[in-house]
């Protein structure tokens, strides 16, 4: 293990996190918050920059990183960023319990959006900004940004880091140079974020928050870009006007697409853009899920408390399906009380996630498509042993290793899901009644099996809000500290797609080479 090289990269990222914390520090100064709020960001900034500088001093004997080192470093970076990122909440008193603060900022960086807060409006402006800004930082990936500064001679090392952090089964360069690839990715990411802020500013302000329109538009764009989901008002996006809800839905669809496709549009390859097999699958599943949910709400196939107009039924159907398939987790209504057909559809899309190469979580549609093709090929081979299998995706024949890796990932995904549910079954909260106040009225639900199942699924798929006692109008505060730490690591497993985190905890990975 190349410890000195790992230390240098980790040090760069710690310094970068310190620089990024200047943004919420400036927000604190702009809104003239108490000195403790300013101090809350100055302390971690000083620690991050100091430690990061010290890690730059040792000179590594080799500059190359092997694959296992890249994977282990990726998980370690995200863990260190979270450990320091939680400090401001504790110092300013917004989240005084460090475990709760760790859970909250891990949820932010991993773009999960699960929260322990019962009243988000009680937070300071700087804390609200830092929570949502963490979505934007974690959405594209902090290491992807750092790759811009890694020398071109380390192209192999850069690719290992990109593979470890980028979602999806296949990662490649858009252009010949890795540095140019990362610049293109971030320019697209930044451009879409700025565009959304501008469009959201065209809407009327939220009643009672007229002076906050730009601030709220910025937080919303951060959450959409990272497909995160932290709200800044009670009821998440419920108080926003229909125009903004439609805008959010559209931009979530855009951020759920593979960013490589936008590059094809930029260079004029429009036909290649629309030939994307995963894009077609994404749009078909979106349309089908919205149609099913809309049908169940309009025709009221099962009685439920809310009464919607036809337009409201469509808007809520579109918003919630898009929000959950892109794993953003924003909400406009209490979907937990919807008919079984609608809620089942939402659970299914939570599993799927959006496209590989996007900022969304979940299994990813590309994996699901390839796995289904692989299963079909295996069945055909059992019927005809002489059949030579060929699995094609996006017009390319896939190697058996890629298919096997996908099956292994899905297997690990479900093993972790089941194992985590088993550990959550020991939490003292199980069996307790939780009171929920939403647009469907005030009601009580028991924290039981479905609460733990949906919480685990929401964390490993980086969705955030789940169902039952941890639904869209509830939170994760009731869980014990052990369960919160467990769910935090599940979020990290989901964001980094399992292997980098498992490698970090493998003793052999840290052996000297």
Main attributes?
mainly alpha, two-stranded antiparallel ribbon, 513 residues
How would you describe the overall organization of this protein?
It is a single chain. The radius of gyration is 22 Å and the shape is globular. The protein is built from 22 helices and four strands. The protein has helices at 3-20, 22-30, 35-55, 67-85, 87-92, 98-109, 125-140, 142-146, 155-165, 178-200, 213-225, 242-255, 259-266, 270-274, 277-298, 310-325, 340-352, 365-383, 400-424, 449-460, 481-495, 499-504, and strands at 392-393, 396-397, 433-438, 441-446. Strand 1 (392-393) and strand 2 (396-397) form a beta hairpin. Helix 2 runs antiparallel to helix 3. 60% of the residues lie in helices and 3% in strands. It has a two-stranded antiparallel ribbon. Strands 3-4 form a two-stranded antiparallel ribbon. By secondary structure, it is mostly helical.
List the helices and strands and how they pair.
Elements: H1 3-20, H2 22-30, H3 35-55, H4 67-85, H5 87-92, H6 98-109, H7 125-140, H8 142-146, H9 155-165, H10 178-200, H11 213-225, H12 242-255, H13 259-266, H14 270-274, H15 277-298, H16 310-325, H17 340-352, H18 365-383, E1 392-393, E2 396-397, H19 400-424, E3 433-438, E4 441-446, H20 449-460, H21 481-495, H22 499-504
Helix pairs in contact: 1-3, 1-4, 2-3, 2-7, 4-6, 4-9, 6-7, 6-21, 7-11, 10-11, 10-12, 10-13, 11-12, 12-16, 15-16, 15-17, 16-17, 18-19, 19-20, 19-21, 20-21
